[in-house]
């Protein structure tokens, strides 16, 4: 993929005007209050993954609507019972993926963190090793995928449920033994990066935020700029439902990572790939440049730029950067 978006100097200055719904905060406060009427109901089952240096638990907690959400929790062996109080990393997954197998993501536990990898309701069958969390909520007519599921009303949209699950994942990890609740970080790539920004805007006492090539940002520009799915699901829908544009864009404005990320208060490390056809660079920079603008004190921000990469972004190089950056944040 050739360079197709704005030149880097323009990206670094890119700060688009936003059409943020006036009742955004009220909408999300009501959503979370409704969900918190359900007990968090964290259930932990030891899981024999054949690993000796890492302990694994199969964890379930109550997400949106009290629906059960699965997660893997991995941590240094013995740290749940030895009096440790470890920092935790909550990770969200990319579009179509599920939590897979616990041995597939060991970097954070190996680095001394408690790692909660949240399964993604209704997904987990497009790549990876599968998911285990159903989405029991139905939808009106929509394009295959989740982008247009509930597209005519933010109260019905799929991502209202998934973002709420993400907030509850932070609450669940804080309820685990051996976790320091004051040192919780959220991270994820692509869809998981968009979720990271959403949760950062909805939870105001995180220690750090690490969105990697985030999806679900500056959605109106994204659907105008790329023909790639998942954004193209919206275009496909509107090509059929020609009179639904206003309602669809209104719904998506409640879910946009740019709008929610403006409310974040924790320091952040982003990544962007300048040849990314799925999450165009200007949509990532819109989120980065607006990040934390509504916080009382603007949080520290930094971004890793991968000039020659597409949606894979930095891959293992970005994990290296995250490990070093987060250690520095915690040391401060």
Automatic annotation (TrEMBL):
Gene3D superfamilies xref list: alpha/beta hydrolase (3.40.50.1820)
Signal peptide per UniProt: none
Pfam families, per database record: AXE1 (PF05448)
InterPro entries found in the cross-reference section: AB_hydrolase_fold (IPR029058), AXE1_dom (IPR008391), CE7 (IPR039069)
Residues of the Acetyl xylan esterase domain: 1-327
The protein's name in its UniProt record: Acetylxylan esterase
């Amino acid at each position: 993929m050739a360079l197709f978006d704005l030149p880097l100097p323009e990206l670094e200055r890119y700060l688009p005007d936003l059409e943020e719904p006036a009742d955004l905060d009220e909408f999300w406060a009501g959503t979370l209050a409704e969900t918190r009427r359900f007990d968090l109901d964290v259930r932990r089952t030891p899981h024999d993954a054949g690993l000796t240096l890492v302990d694994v638990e199969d964890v379930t907690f109550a997400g949106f609507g009290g629906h059960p959400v699965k997660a893997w929790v991995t941590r240094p062996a013995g740290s749940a019972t030895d009096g440790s109080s470890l920092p935790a990393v909550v990770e969200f997954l990319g579009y179509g993926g599920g939590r897979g197998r616990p041995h597939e993501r060991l970097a954070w536990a190996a680095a001394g963190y408690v790692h909660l990898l949240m399964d993604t309701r209704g997904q987990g069958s497009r790549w990876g090793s599968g998911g285990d969390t159903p989405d029991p909520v139905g939808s009106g007519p929509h394009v295959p995928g989740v982008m247009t599921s509930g597209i005519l009303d933010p109260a019905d949209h799929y991502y209202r449920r998934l973002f709420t699950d993400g907030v509850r994942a932070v609450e669940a990890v804080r309820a685990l033994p051996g976790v320091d609740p004051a040192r919780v970080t959220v991270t994820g790539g692509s869809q998981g990066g968009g979720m990271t920004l959403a949760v950062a805007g909805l939870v105001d006492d995180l220690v750090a935020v690490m969105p990697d090539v985030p999806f679900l940002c500056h959605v109106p520009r994204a659907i105008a700029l790329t023909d790639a799915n998942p954004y193209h699901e919206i275009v496909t829908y509107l090509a059929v439902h020609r009179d639904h544009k206003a309602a669809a864009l209104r719904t998506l404005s409640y879910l946009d990572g740019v709008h929610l990320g403006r409310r974040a208060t924790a320091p952040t490390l982003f990544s962007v790939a300048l040849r990314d056809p799925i999450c165009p660079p200007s949509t990532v920079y819109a989120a980065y440049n607006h990040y934390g603008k509504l916080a009382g004190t603007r949080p520290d921000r930094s971004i890793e730029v991968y000039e020659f990469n597409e949606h894979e972004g930095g891959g293992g190089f970005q994990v290296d950067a995250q490990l070093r950056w987060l250690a520095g944040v915690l040391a401060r």
